[in-house]
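Bench notes, afternoon.
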Amino acid sequence: MNITIRKAKDLRDSLRTAINNIKFVTQVELTEFQMPVNAIAKVEEKFAKNLINRDAMLLAMYELEKHIQKGYDMSEIGIMMSDIDLLKNQIEFFEDLVQRPVMEEMSSVTGKLEKIRKSENINNTLTVNVLTQEDIDGFTQVIAQSKRSMNQLEDQILEMSLRTELPVTEQTIKTLTENGII
Protein backbone atom coordinates (compact mmCIF):
# COMPACT_ATOMS: atom_id res chain seq x y z
CA MET A 1 0.00 0.00 0.00
CA ASN A 2 1.20 3.52 -0.79
CA ILE A 3 0.32 6.69 1.10
CA THR A 4 1.29 10.32 0.68
CA ILE A 5 3.94 11.99 2.80
CA ARG A 6 1.24 14.10 4.41
CA LYS A 7 -0.81 11.03 5.37
CA ALA A 8 2.35 9.30 6.64
CA LYS A 9 3.09 12.32 8.87
CA ASP A 10 -0.46 12.29 10.22
CA LEU A 11 -0.26 8.56 10.94
CA ARG A 12 3.16 8.96 12.58
CA ASP A 13 1.80 11.71 14.82
CA SER A 14 -1.24 9.59 15.70
CA LEU A 15 1.04 6.70 16.63
CA ARG A 16 3.16 9.00 18.80
CA THR A 17 0.04 10.16 20.64
CA ALA A 18 -1.24 6.60 21.05
CA ILE A 19 2.14 5.45 22.41
CA ASN A 20 2.24 8.32 24.88
CA ASN A 21 -1.26 7.45 26.08
CA ILE A 22 -0.44 3.85 26.98
CA LYS A 23 -0.45 3.38 30.75
CA PHE A 24 2.08 0.99 32.19
CA VAL A 25 0.69 0.05 35.59
CA THR A 26 3.33 -1.69 37.69
CA GLN A 27 1.48 -1.87 40.99
CA VAL A 28 -1.75 -3.38 42.23
CA GLU A 29 -3.65 -2.54 45.39
CA LEU A 30 -4.96 -5.56 47.20
CA THR A 31 -7.57 -5.97 49.85
CA GLU A 32 -7.73 -8.78 52.35
CA PHE A 33 -10.54 -10.34 50.29
CA GLN A 34 -8.63 -10.63 47.00
CA MET A 35 -6.52 -13.48 45.74
CA PRO A 36 -3.11 -11.83 45.28
CA VAL A 37 -2.01 -14.26 42.58
CA ASN A 38 -5.04 -13.49 40.40
CA ALA A 39 -4.84 -9.72 40.87
CA ILE A 40 -1.10 -9.65 40.17
CA ALA A 41 -1.50 -11.90 37.13
CA LYS A 42 -4.17 -9.58 35.71
CA VAL A 43 -1.90 -6.51 36.02
CA GLU A 44 1.07 -8.45 34.62
CA GLU A 45 -1.01 -9.60 31.64
CA LYS A 46 -2.18 -6.05 30.90
CA PHE A 47 1.40 -4.78 31.25
CA ALA A 48 2.69 -7.44 28.83
CA LYS A 49 -0.04 -6.65 26.27
CA ASN A 50 0.71 -2.93 26.51
CA LEU A 51 4.42 -3.58 26.11
CA ILE A 52 3.88 -5.69 22.97
CA ASN A 53 1.49 -3.09 21.57
CA ARG A 54 3.90 -0.25 22.35
CA ASP A 55 6.75 -2.04 20.59
CA ALA A 56 4.60 -2.70 17.50
CA MET A 57 3.43 0.92 17.37
CA LEU A 58 6.97 2.22 17.92
CA LEU A 59 8.28 0.09 15.05
CA ALA A 60 5.44 1.29 12.82
CA MET A 61 6.05 4.91 13.79
CA TYR A 62 9.75 4.74 12.93
CA GLU A 63 9.08 2.84 9.71
CA LEU A 64 6.82 5.72 8.70
CA GLU A 65 9.49 8.22 9.78
CA LYS A 66 12.09 6.48 7.59
CA HIS A 67 9.76 6.59 4.60
CA ILE A 68 8.92 10.24 5.29
CA GLN A 69 12.63 11.08 5.29
CA LYS A 70 13.15 9.08 2.09
CA GLY A 71 10.21 10.93 0.54
CA TYR A 72 11.76 14.24 1.59
CA ASP A 73 14.97 13.24 -0.17
CA MET A 74 13.14 12.10 -3.32
CA SER A 75 11.07 15.27 -3.54
CA GLU A 76 13.65 17.73 -2.17
CA ILE A 77 11.32 18.66 0.68
CA GLY A 78 14.24 18.39 3.11
CA ILE A 79 16.15 21.01 1.15
CA MET A 80 13.12 23.30 1.12
CA MET A 81 12.68 22.81 4.88
CA SER A 82 16.31 23.92 5.38
CA ASP A 83 15.58 26.97 3.24
CA ILE A 84 12.55 27.73 5.43
CA ASP A 85 14.73 27.46 8.56
CA LEU A 86 17.17 29.93 7.00
CA LEU A 87 14.33 32.35 6.22
CA LYS A 88 12.91 32.02 9.75
CA ASN A 89 16.34 32.85 11.15
CA GLN A 90 16.60 35.89 8.86
CA ILE A 91 13.12 37.09 9.81
CA GLU A 92 13.84 36.73 13.53
CA PHE A 93 17.15 38.57 13.22
CA PHE A 94 15.80 41.49 11.19
CA GLU A 95 12.60 41.78 13.26
CA ASP A 96 14.86 42.47 16.24
CA LEU A 97 16.80 45.11 14.32
CA VAL A 98 13.72 47.02 13.12
CA GLN A 99 12.71 47.49 16.78
CA ARG A 100 15.90 49.39 17.56
CA PRO A 101 16.02 53.18 17.67
CA VAL A 102 17.31 55.12 14.67
CA MET A 103 20.25 57.51 14.66
CA GLU A 104 19.61 61.09 15.69
CA GLU A 105 20.34 63.95 13.34
CA MET A 106 24.08 64.60 13.17
CA SER A 107 23.58 68.20 14.30
CA SER A 108 21.95 66.90 17.49
CA VAL A 109 24.82 64.48 18.08
CA THR A 110 27.49 67.15 17.57
CA GLY A 111 25.58 69.54 19.85
CA LYS A 112 25.45 66.97 22.63
CA LEU A 113 29.15 66.20 22.19
CA GLU A 114 29.95 69.89 22.42
CA LYS A 115 28.02 70.07 25.71
CA ILE A 116 30.05 67.12 27.03
CA ARG A 117 33.32 68.83 26.00
CA LYS A 118 32.33 71.94 27.90
CA SER A 119 31.22 70.09 31.01
CA GLU A 120 33.56 69.66 33.92
CA ASN A 121 32.85 65.92 34.28
CA ILE A 122 35.46 64.07 32.22
CA ASN A 123 33.64 60.70 32.37
CA ASN A 124 30.60 61.76 30.31
CA THR A 125 29.92 59.78 27.17
CA LEU A 126 27.26 59.87 24.51
CA THR A 127 25.64 56.75 23.18
CA VAL A 128 24.62 57.12 19.55
CA ASN A 129 22.46 54.73 17.59
CA VAL A 130 24.03 53.90 14.25
CA LEU A 131 21.04 52.56 12.29
CA THR A 132 19.39 55.03 9.95
CA GLN A 133 15.74 55.03 8.91
CA GLU A 134 16.91 53.79 5.50
CA ASP A 135 18.54 50.80 7.25
CA ILE A 136 15.29 50.05 9.11
CA ASP A 137 13.29 50.36 5.88
CA GLY A 138 15.71 47.99 4.14
CA PHE A 139 15.43 45.46 6.98
CA THR A 140 11.63 45.72 6.77
CA GLN A 141 11.83 44.87 3.07
CA VAL A 142 14.07 41.87 3.82
CA ILE A 143 11.50 40.64 6.35
CA ALA A 144 8.62 41.02 3.89
CA GLN A 145 10.51 39.26 1.08
CA SER A 146 11.61 36.46 3.42
CA LYS A 147 8.02 35.92 4.56
CA ARG A 148 6.81 35.76 0.95
CA SER A 149 9.55 33.27 0.05
CA MET A 150 8.77 31.19 3.13
CA ASN A 151 5.07 31.07 2.24
CA GLN A 152 5.91 29.97 -1.31
CA LEU A 153 8.18 27.21 -0.02
CA GLU A 154 5.54 26.04 2.48
CA ASP A 155 2.99 25.87 -0.35
CA GLN A 156 5.42 23.84 -2.47
CA ILE A 157 6.10 21.48 0.44
CA LEU A 158 2.38 20.97 1.00
CA GLU A 159 1.84 20.23 -2.68
CA MET A 160 4.75 17.78 -2.79
CA SER A 161 3.59 16.14 0.45
CA LEU A 162 0.24 15.46 -1.17
CA ARG A 163 1.75 14.18 -4.43
CA THR A 164 4.66 12.03 -3.21
CA GLU A 165 3.60 8.52 -2.29
CA LEU A 166 5.45 6.18 0.06
CA PRO A 167 5.24 2.42 0.54
CA VAL A 168 3.93 1.05 3.85
CA THR A 169 4.44 -2.53 5.00
CA GLU A 170 1.58 -4.87 5.80
CA GLN A 171 2.79 -5.11 9.42
CA THR A 172 2.51 -1.33 9.81
CA ILE A 173 -0.98 -1.36 8.26
CA LYS A 174 -1.95 -4.16 10.68
CA THR A 175 -0.61 -2.23 13.69
CA LEU A 176 -2.38 0.96 12.61
CA THR A 177 -5.63 -0.92 12.08
CA GLU A 178 -5.45 -2.81 15.39
CA ASN A 179 -5.00 0.44 17.25
CA GLY A 180 -7.84 2.21 15.49
CA ILE A 181 -5.58 4.73 13.78
CA ILE A 182 -6.77 3.74 10.29
